[in-house]
Write a structure and sequence with these properties.
This protein has 13 helices and 26 strands. By secondary structure, the protein is of the alpha/beta class. It has two domains: 3-356, Spore Coat Polysaccharide Biosynthesis Protein SpsA, Chain A (Alpha-Beta Complex); 363-457, Hexapeptide repeat proteins (UDP N-Acetylglucosamine Acyltransferase, domain 1), CATH 2.160.10. The strands form eight sheets. Strands 2-18-12-15-11-3-6-7 form an eight-stranded mixed beta sheet, with helices on both faces.
Amino acid sequence: MTDGLALARDKMTAAGVNPQAIEVFSHYYTQLQEGVTGFIAEDSIAPLEHPDLLADVTVAEEDARAALGATVMIKLNGGLGTSMGMDRAKSLLPVRDGQSFLDLIVGQVRAARTAYEVTLPLLFMNSFRTHDDTLAALAGYDDLAVDGLDLDFVQSQEPKLRADDLTPVEWAADPTMEWCPPGHGDLYPSLQASGVLDRLIALGYRYASVSNSDNLGAAPDATIAGWFAASGAPYAAEVCRRTAADRKGGHLAIRKADGQLILRDTAQTAKDEMHYFTDEHRHPYFHTNNLWFDLRRLSETLTQRNSVLGLPLIRNEKTVDPADPSSPAVVQIESAMGAAVEVFEGATAIGVGRERFLPVKTTNDLLLLRSDVYDVAEDGRLVRVADPAPLVDLDSSHYKTIGAFEQRFPAGAPSLRQASGLTVAGDWTFEADVTVVGVGTLADEGEPRTVPSGTVLGHSSS
């Protein structure tokens, strides 16, 4: 065993990390040391072109109810929203009328429970950084937990590794930054190590529906549950038709060697093949990170593989303090939960509408969700009332962080229902009752400016 791996294992053991998680980390460390890139060559795959389409699926109501009644909702909630300047769970951000992502998710689950008369447990996979704040925010929902299940389980943690020698980094300024979550591929071993997987199976649940907590489109769906149950597949991914705006998202493909579905992400694509990756015509569907799996099949597979599913390695290069580019360069060992599609023989995919994919990765996305482009239905779903949704492009030097964004929209989002796009360059603060019609554009004036109340921005605005 190398010094770096031995030091990392010792550090994880001292911190009380589960032995199964240490073995998974060791598996990836060895690959990292061997120089594994995780690249998937274009000539080794064929595009996924004709998945089942949700629009064509018909499921009897009693079958849909039975399938949803055997399902647990799991939300990935370990992210801090650091790219938006946050230091706590992104899901705590207010989205509509003071309601956060968490509040809207709870509303969606409660509505489905009532409509289908099912228990539908809701579980959050938190990281060590989001656990406390999330449970505090959920404390007011005293009817949310079911069947004696907790509302969350905490994913593992692992040391960040120095990029120069792959030893665990030390950062006295804030020792918590020496640690990171191991990517959302950690979902599977964490379900097992926490005991939650066995508990769900013992309680009679068969299926899991998993999605990111910042994607409010991934509400409970009895039709997909019924389709998945009837398919007999061990695993299914929701995919969406790509547009030019989706060129960065990972996509499913078919491995030529054995016909198996696999996931390819940007980190698994060589630079000289990125033009294939970003071609929305060559690879017409992107992976939404909404997925379904059979709990029993997962348990059997983890047992057979000694908790190591062997998902492809993702080498994520950062600095130990993400906010300080001068801090030491580190490598974070990660894996993607969607890559499990290649672990399960017979895994499949279903094409869903855009309403199932509403992620918030930037303040551009947040402004859109807060605007009148969307209404909130009684069941907590966000319903788009403008078609298509306008493209929002805010100057990242002034709007990237939540704090800066909130300062520049003190009265809330402008009306975007009649807009096809909003592009803001420079530092503009929006007063109340601003409306965008068609293409709204604001140029950089070189100094802070204000968009007065009552303004209508349109094609001729500059």
